[in-house]
């Protein structure tokens, strides 16, 4: 089985976000870039599945839509254990345009499962996975928190409002995954980092997919009012605040 | 022209978040001078569906075949698309939750309609259609313009509130032209959450971090949660260490929640934790370190040892409730 893991390149989670050009674009000055945390979990599990010979997974490919600046992130994916990386050479404009790029590549190359993280840490759209599936007219399962293989078939666990459901499928599907799919991301070791240099990183031109949405401005949230401190021996006072002032009790 | 609201079916029942999405949809429809209608998949009594009329929904299309009691992303997308065409819908509103995330992006492609997820307020302008959403895990807001004629948005839970608007709600059956016997996926097992309040629905949440010192110390936290009717949650290291189930993990990489009350106990307030809880209406922090960053985002703070403060707070709530 071949797995395609979609990788978003996002600012480190501790980044103090700033905007430039009259608050119309993200200011990337000095920003550290990382593999989107959910995509990192997706990749971790994909590599684990491949490395455990009880599973039918034979190849893990990672893909990113982005400019040349995202290559260190793709190299890190190779160091974690992906076999091959693909970069579609364009700056992503919105989820629709990004998904269309990935879908057109997937159309030409058969993957059994395309795996996306549940959201991207920058624009938090939760969209690309579902959109790829619709472009490919294939099934998608979202909120996936585990996968196991039994007799060549995948059993996928998903979270629903009432609990969990276990879905059997043979492939040709998009999985949109969250915490649980893997618990902690794999850290690349020295050998992985050395091997990553030899692995293929293919750059392919973008298609002319259009965007349907446009980010036109940004704001930082209003600073929060200062915290009201309550003495540890005055819990009655806290309860009063919560009921009378905040009206939440 | 109409605004369509997607009403998630919670085991044949409606929940507060359905009424919130309905409220939002009817407010938006009012500003666009058109009706707000709803679609519900799976079985639900008309007496339940009628309640949507309290929040401005004037027509509800029900798709009652049993084949729609389980979410199938591709199939549900087809059905909503057919409703959109039949009812001349211009804007579709989903809840920004598991089910909305499953369907809305697919529908966006099917209808060639721009999709903005996690919106937190009414559009800034209708022409052009510009709307605000949270980005960078809550560190900023963005204004996004949708450039397609059809528009899809998903509403962040607990961002808009309930707005009553009594309306006559006509309930009609909708018969989609789809085949429900797709064999490529098959549900082979289910586990139903049995006890407690679901974290994603909870109005109140009590959450423990590494400052709780160990899983054996959770009793007083659970006790407080019980007394105030709260769900329990935890920080990531707590679930990573197996002190609590990873179902309880909140934050950037766990569940993102927005209860009315969030009580953070022994949680330092790392940026990744705050990303999952910053939309809470009221945050209380209990921590023995006066410099803990959680106090920067909290509304009320208590400095001291969690083990001592929790039982006192529980007693105070009991006294307040006259127990
Ligand atoms: C990519 C990435 C994603 C992440 N995602 C998440 C996420 O989704 N959710 C998340 O929570 N974290 C996440 N983290 C981890 C995050 O950075 C913090 O490490 C974590 O939130 C800290 O958890 P904590 O507050 O429980 O523990 P600590 O930071 O160790 O804080 C414990 C707190 O307890 C207080 N304390 C100690 N003893 C007591 C006592 N007796 N009484 C009262 N208070 C006491 C201490 O003063 C301290 O403030 C992520 C990190 C990364 C890098």
Polypeptide structure, described:
- The complex is a heterodimer of chains A (249) and B (323).
- Chain A is of the alpha/beta class.
- Chain A has helices spanning 37-51, 71-80, 95-108, 128-136, 190-196, 235-245, and strands at 2-6, 9-11, 19-20, 25-26, 33-35, 59-65, 84-89, 113-117, 139-150, 153-160, 163-169, 173-177, 201-205, 213-219, 228-229.
- In chain A, helix 2 (71-80) packs across helix 5 and helix 3 (95-108) crosses helix 4 (128-136).
- With 323 residues, chain B is α/β, with parallel strands linked by helices.
- Chain B has 2 domains: 2-182, HUPs (Rossmann fold, 3-Layer(aba) Sandwich); 199-321, Rossmann fold (3-Layer(aba) Sandwich).
- In chain B, 27% of the residues lie in helices and 26% in strands.
- Chain B has 9 helices and 15 strands.
- In chain B, 54% of the residues are buried.
- Classes of the chains: A alpha/beta (249), B alpha/beta (323).
- Chains A and B meet through helix 1, helix 3, helix 4, strand 9 and strand 10 of A and helix 3, helix 4, strand 5, strand 6 and strand 7 of B.
- Strand 11 of chain A pairs antiparallel with strand 10 of chain B, so a sheet runs across the interface.
- Bound molecules: flavin-adenine dinucleotide.
- Residues 209-211, 235-238, 251-254, 266-268, 270, 272-273, 276, 287-289, 292, 305-306 of chain B line the site of flavin-adenine dinucleotide.
- Flavin-adenine dinucleotide is lined by residues 209-211, 235-238, 251-254, 266-268, 270, 272-273, 276, 287-289, 292, 305-306 of chain B.
List keywords for this structure.
A: alpha/beta; Rossmann fold; 9-stranded mixed β-sheet; two-stranded antiparallel sheet; 27% helix; globular; B: 323 residues; alpha/beta; 7-stranded parallel β-sheet; 5-stranded parallel β-sheet; 9 helices; binds flavin-adenine dinucleotide
């Amino acid at each position: 089985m071949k797995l395609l893991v979609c990788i978003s390149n996002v600012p480190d989670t501790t980044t103090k976000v700033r905007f430039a050009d009259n608050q119309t674009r993200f200011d990337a000055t000095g920003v550290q870039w990382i593999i989107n945390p959910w995509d990192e979990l997706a990749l971790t599990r994909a590599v684990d599945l491949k490395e455990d010979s009880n599973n039918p997974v034979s190849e893990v490919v990672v893909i990113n839509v982005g400019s040349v600046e995202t290559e260190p992130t793709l190299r890190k994916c190779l160091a974690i254990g992906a076999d091959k990386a693909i970069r579609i050479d364009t700056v992503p404009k919105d989820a629709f345009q990004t998904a269309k790029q990935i879908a057109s590549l997937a159309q030409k190359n058969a993957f059994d499962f395309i795996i996306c993280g549940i959201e991207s840490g920058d624009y938090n759209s939760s969209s690309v996975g579902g959109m790829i599936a619709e472009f490919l007219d294939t099934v998608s399962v979202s909120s996936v928190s585990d996968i196991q293989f039994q007799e060549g078939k995948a059993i996928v666990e998903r979270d629903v409002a009432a609990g969990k459901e276990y879905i059997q499928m043979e492939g040709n599907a998009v999985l949109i995954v969250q915490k649980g799919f893997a618990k902690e991301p794999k850290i690349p070791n020295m050998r992985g980092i050395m091997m990553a240099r030899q692995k293929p990183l293919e750059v392919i031109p973008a298609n002319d997919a259009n965007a349907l949405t446009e980010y036109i401005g940004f704001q930082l949230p209003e600073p929060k009012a200062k915290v009201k401190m309550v003495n540890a021996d005055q819990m009655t006072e806290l309860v009063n605040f919560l009921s009378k002032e905040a009206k939440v009790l | 022209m109409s605004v369509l609201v997607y009403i998630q079916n919670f085991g044949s029942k409606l929940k507060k978040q359905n009424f919130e999405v309905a409220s939002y949809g009817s407010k938006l429809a009012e500003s666009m001078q058109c009706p707000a209608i709803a679609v519900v998949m799976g079985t639900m009594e008309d007496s339940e569906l009628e309640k949507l009329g309290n929040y401005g929904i004037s027509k509800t299309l029900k798709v009652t075949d049993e084949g729609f009691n389980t979410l199938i992303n591709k199939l549900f997308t087809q059905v909503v698309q057919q409703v959109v065409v039949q009812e001349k819908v211009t804007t579709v509103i989903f809840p920004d939750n598991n089910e909305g995330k499953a369907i809305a992006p697919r529908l966006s492609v099917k209808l060639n309609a721009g999709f903005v997820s996690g919106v937190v307020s009414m559009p800034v302008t209708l022409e052009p259609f510009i709307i605000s959403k949270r980005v960078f895990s809550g560190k900023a807001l963005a204004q996004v313009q949708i450039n397609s004629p059809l528009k899809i948005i998903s509403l962040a839970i607990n961002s808009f509130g309930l707005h009553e608007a009594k309306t006559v709600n006509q309930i009609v059956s909708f018969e989609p032209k789809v085949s429900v016997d797709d064999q490529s996926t098959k549900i082979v097992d289910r586990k139903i959450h049995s006890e407690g309040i679901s974290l994603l629905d909870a109005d109140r949440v009590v959450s423990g971090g590494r400052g709780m010192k160990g899983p054996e110390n959770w009793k007083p936290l659970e006790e407080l949660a019980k007394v105030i009717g709260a769900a329990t949650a935890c920080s990531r290291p707590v679930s990573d260490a197996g002190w609590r189930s990873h179902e309880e993990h909140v934050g950037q990489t766990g569940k993102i929640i927005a209860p009315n009350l969030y009580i953070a106990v022994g949680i330092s307030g790392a940026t990744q934790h705050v990303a999952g809880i910053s939309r809470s209406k009221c945050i209380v922090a209990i921590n023995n370190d006066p410099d803990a960053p959680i106090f920067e985002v909290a509304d009320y703070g208590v400095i001291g040892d969690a083990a001592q403060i929790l039982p006192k707070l529980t007693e105070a709530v009991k006294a307040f409730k006259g127990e």
